[in-house]
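We were asked to recover a plausible sequence for a given structure. The inputs and outputs are reproduced exactly as logged, with field labels preserved.

PROBLEM: sequence recovery
POSITIONS: 408
GIVEN STRUCTURE:
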């Protein structure tokens, strides 16, 4: 349904306009799922439904550009093990970690995975999310990876949400390939990527390039195959050590490098040159009690766009709240609240290859809008645990969140 949002004070996050400042009240006309006009004047078509946004603040709908939302099982036991002194890497080497989630996810049906994911998705939605990227990576066979990607996409028919899917078959070496990582990479490149591309189940391909994941050579083989099938490239890089995965991702014109606590200056220069987004994941940094901070100063200096995401997953970031990540981005990584908001809107849009139509309040862009009960945008990074979202618009569909009669 088409409508006009009146008295809309907004932070538009347009690349070269309005900055972080709150605009004076304006009218946003939404037609056919797009923002058709932003103006001080009311549209001439006065048959449009009017929704009064007085006392609200509007931002682009938030984009969570890195999640592992689809999984079965729990890793609370490993959380306990870690606090009793066993490191994450050690748990992984003993066959726990990612592989314990693989076992549980393989045993679940597509429908079970959907049902397990809905409460997590609801958490993200309550924090203002209108677009979410979801990775596979807990299946590690063709059928199980496909099952995960289908479950991820199916969430769109249960909630008002836009899902971008990423194939992360190169997340861990499955038990049946133990000691044969190169053979598994052959299978990923020759079987999984072609089938997933053919069925159009993923927009991007990601690799966990790490000592407990895949080597640079193996990562490059996956990137080559992804490129051959026209899929976008992303990397889990420099999370626990500096292998050079980010520079490699940059060479393949990847859309984003994610985690990057151990990224060095050469890596920063490489991603600056390729226009690759640096996605920061403070939830995993916090939950693993890491000490190495991402190179924020250098990223600023080289003008690298920084995105911020939940990394929602059972092992390293069991948090389904994107405004909490804005708070952690500020408190743990020293981002400003403006950088945090750009990180979950315009820069996150770029990290999923959608910067032409999402992540800004701008004429012609998708009508994905978060409508908040706040006065200033810094409030999104500030208090936590208080429901701030009043309503949301996803592809032009208006949905009220707070039960109070805020809208006339
Ligand atoms: O982004 N680093 C690799 N993958 C995930 C963790 C997945 C897991 O532990 O289940 C991450 O942190
Ligand atoms: Fe991740």
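RECOVERED SEQUENCE:
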């Amino acid at each position: 349904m088409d409508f006009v949002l009146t008295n809309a004070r907004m932070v538009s996050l347009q690349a070269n306009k309005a900055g972080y400042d709150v605009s004076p009240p304006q009218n946003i006309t939404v037609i056919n799922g797009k923002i058709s006009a932003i103006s001080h004047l009311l549209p001439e078509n006065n048959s449009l439904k009017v929704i009064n946004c007085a006392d609200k603040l509007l931002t682009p709908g938030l984009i969570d550009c890195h999640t592992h939302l689809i999984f079965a099982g729990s890793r609370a036991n490993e959380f306990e093990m870690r606090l009793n002194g066993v490191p994450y890497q050690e748990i992984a080497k003993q066959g726990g970690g990612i592989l314990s989630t693989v076992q549980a996810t393989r045993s679940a049906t597509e429908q079970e995975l959907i049902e397990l994911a809905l409460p997590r998705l609801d958490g993200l939605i309550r924090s203002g999310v209108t677009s979410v990227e979801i990775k596979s990576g807990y299946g590690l066979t063709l059928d199980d990876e496909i099952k995960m990607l289908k479950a991820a996409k199916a969430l769109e028919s249960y909630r008002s949400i836009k899902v971008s899917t990423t194939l992360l078959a190169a997340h861990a070496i499955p038990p049946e390939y133990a000691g044969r990582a190169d053979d598994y990479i052959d299978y990923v490149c020759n079987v999984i990527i072609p089938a997933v591309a053919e069925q159009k189940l993923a927009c991007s391909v990601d690799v966990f390039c790490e000592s407990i994941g895949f080597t640079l050579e193996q990562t490059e083989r996956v990137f080559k195959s992804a490129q051959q099938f026209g899929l976008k490239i992303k990397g889990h890089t420099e999370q626990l050590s500096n292998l050079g995965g980010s520079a490699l991702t940059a060479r393949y014109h990847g859309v984003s490098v994610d985690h990057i606590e151990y990224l060095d200056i050469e890596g920063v220069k490489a991603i600056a040159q390729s226009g690759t987004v640096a996605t920061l994941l403070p939830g995993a940094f916090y939950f693993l009690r890491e000490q190495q901070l991402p190179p924020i100063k250098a990223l600023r200096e080289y003008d690298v766009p920084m995105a911020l995401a939940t990394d929602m997953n059972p092992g390293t970031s069991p948090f389904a709240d994107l405004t909490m990540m804005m708070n952690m981005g500020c408190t743990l990584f020293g981002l400003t609240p403006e950088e945090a908001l750009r990180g979950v809107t315009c820069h996150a849009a770029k990290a999923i290859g959608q910067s032409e139509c999402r992540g800004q309040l701008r004429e012609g862009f998708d009508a994905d809008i978060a409508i908040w009960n706040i006065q200033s945008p810094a409030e999104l990074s500030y208090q936590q645990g208080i429901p701030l979202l009043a309503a949301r618009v996803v592809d032009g569909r208006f949905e009220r969140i707070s039960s109070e009669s805020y809208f006339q």
